[in-house]
User: What shape does this take?
Amino acid sequence: MQFFLDTANIEEIKKYASWGVVDGITTNPSLIAKEGVSLEKRIKEIAEVVDGPISAEVMAVDFKDMVEEGRRNASWHKNVYVKLPMTPDGLRACKILTKEGININVTLVFSLPQAVMAAKAGATLVSPFVGRLDDVSQDGMQLIEDIRIAFDNYAYKTKILAASIRHPLHVVQAMKIGADIATMPAKVFDQLVKHPLTDKGIEIFLADFEKVKNLQ
Ligand code: G3P
Assistant: This one.
């Protein structure tokens, strides 16, 4: 499974990229707004650090502007994946931009039919939002499973990017289901690595090493 970092914070990106475990980056307008930087500037900075897909969302809501903005975003770097919202205009733009060889990530997906529509429009990635479904008492992970089954049944090549991941168990469940990618905030990267028994084990080994380090 590929692990993407869901952030526009360049320091976070540098930190986790140095671990050798970041396969790509997803950004969204809210994450960019938090950074107080232009999308173009930040995407180009990210591309210097991570050699993998970098999602850059369009702000436009109508088809014509989406296509224009999508082409512009894609021109910033070869690794840019244009993020389009799951709307009729988004689907139309997806079809056009895909034909031009631009990778598309269809975002804000909350149902199986939406995921299938994105796949039919040629999306490279589809982003179902697990945590936001959980927030409204719907089973976000069930949606990942349903999409996996449908994509396998009909051999859609579109990859499932499990988004709005909130904790390590989401990642574990997404892996078992066979989601292609999970995008997660920095906090979840930390949680995936941490285990109290690892910390305890290091503590014990260090204490024992202290006892014998001066012995010949
Ligand atoms: O980038 C899309 C998604 O991962 C957002 O997550 O936590 O804002 O629902 P969240």
